[in-house]
Specification:
Elements (H helix, E strand, L loop, with lengths): L1 H17 L10 H5 L5 H23 L6 H19 L8 H30 L3 H28 L4 H27 L2 H10 L5
Helix pairs in contact: 1-3, 1-7, 3-4, 3-5, 3-7, 4-5, 5-6, 6-7
């Protein structure tokens, strides 16, 4: 219940309020987050987003037979995001720390994206039923990636518009994937076979 509420209400509303009254094409979360009156709000936003994705991704990777690489990506995304929000972005005063902030933030989003790609494709490979059920999620993730690239090319920078789109769309996709897969898994022949092999009762 808390994950659903976070995905559909807390994260989208918090993100939109955070960038309110700003230029979505000329600014971005890093710039806004280092304004004195929004510094703590920026850290809170990063913490909420990071913990949400880490929690859901770890729950999904648990369904995979071997998931060390996916776990490393999930852990890395959380760590890099926390480092990004903790590192000030003040290019004129702190150029090196600002450079590190950019690196941390970019790598955090890349780790998250790679983790989602690996996760969806590997979950879909568990059975024919899973492949059919998760086919729309493959298309949606590709669409999110393409739209993010388009927004980047239009603005010429990583803008607030791009970040808001990516955060909200990736959050909703991940939550719907979590609900869809856990339901499909529990009602699939693959799940039944695995649980019989482990002598676990089917819930």
């Amino acid at each position: 219940m808390l994950l659903t509420f976070s995905a559909y209400f807390i994260i989208p509303i918090y993100t939109l309020l955070f960038v309110s009254d700003t230029d979505w094409f000329a600014a971005n979360l890093s710039v806004i987050g280092n304004w004195p009156d929004r510094r703590f709000a920026f850290m809170g936003l990063g913490l909420i987003i990071g913990l949400y994705f880490h929690t859901v991704l770890r729950r999904l990777t648990a369904y995979l037979p071997r998931h060390e690489q996916e776990d490393r990506l999930a852990h890395g995304a959380l760590l890099l995001l926390l480092l990004a929000v903790a590192t000030p972005y003040l290019p004129e005063r702190m150029p090196f720390k600002s450079f590190l902030h950019i690196v941390f933030a970019f790598l955090a989003s890349m780790f998250l994206l790679f983790c989602l790609y690996r996760l969806i494709w590997r979950l879909a490979s568990l059975s024919g039923e899973m492949r059919l059920a998760l086919r729309p999620y493959k298309a949606l993730l590709l669409a999110i990636t393409a739209m993010s690239a388009l927004l980047l090319s239009l603005a010429g920078i990583i803008s607030s518009l791009l970040e808001v789109f990516f955060i909200i769309s990736a959050t909703i996709l991940t939550q719907r994937l979590y609900r869809q897969f856990t339901y499909s898994f529990r009602h699939s022949r693959y799940s039944s076979a695995i649980r019989r092999a482990r002598k676990e009762p089917i819930l």
